[in-house]
Amino acid sequence: MDSLNSSIVTQKILFIMQLPPPIHGASLMNSYLIKSDLIRRNYKTSFVNLQFSNSMNELSKFSFRKIFKMVKYGFAIIGKILGNRPDLVYFTLTPVGFALYRDAFYVFILKIFKVKIVFHLHGKGIQNNANQSRINKELYKWVFNNTNIICLSERLVSDIKDYNKTTVYTIPNGIPDRKKILKPAHSNKSTPNILYLSNYFKSKGILVLIEALGILNKRGFKFNAKLVGADGNLTVEMLENIIRKENLSEMVKVTGPKFGIDKFIEFQKADIFIHPTYNDAFPLVCIEAMQFYLPVISTDEGGIPDIVLDNETGFIVEPKNTLMLAEKISILLNNEALRLEMGEKGYERYLNNYTIDHFEKNVNATFQTILGR
Prior knowledge:
single chain; six-stranded parallel beta sheet; 14% strand; globular
């Protein structure tokens, strides 16, 4: 699909981004933005979908097929620029890893044609990556020179401050409202339900969570827990073996991935949501949990403390701190009133900050500022 709208508007935006599959925070937000009626009404839009992988496991793996696609998408970008002459290019640049060098190839093309660029950074790690290599440091200076940048959180602005001298815009992600199935009828069962919902990567803290649940079980706490997600560097079988060794098989279940209505039902059934990640920028899943009136326990990682207010909408713990995580879970297991109070405050915070309407209006306002409208 070349043009995404038919309205009579004068300014053109080329979107360079990745759309699902696979489904992750950046690709999901990209799909929301591409479908936005507000954006389509205000601009003539076209896009290039940088789809190099079909699953989460393929994202970090090298293949010659990806090299072929990289060149193919480069020609597609040149074609869009020559054919549409965009006033602005919106690019969800990958800030670290091999994908950074791949995306720098596309930045080179954009700078040859001297188009106005806005990067939307959905990840982090720029400062750390630059400190590891002089080449990376110089690359960042070149990539971000004379460009506009959107960060997801005020806490993430410091990651880019040494490499950008222009304005950095802060736009938190937002998600659609699920009014029909939104508010759960929390069960009156004496055993609270704990939910983990993310892909099965060690960096998401799932092993830390299992260890914390093992501590709570030994202390006599009663709970049921579901670990929902797709295989990453951990699989369902691997997790079940670990759970068996912790003597948690009766209370902790590994379900595999769930999508759409099935995923929302898991939120509805839950009483506590836990995301013990130690590698995240702005996880949408925490906002989804707040939308379902759940208290959230997560970590002091990336922009999470801007989403989850410690001791108000949930708890913030240190990454990989198993004892601290167990302690915060125990507080919520023992106090239903506190769970409900934090869940209500989390839902209010979602409504006031993280709806899809907030996101679209903030992006549109940023585009207008950059384009001088």
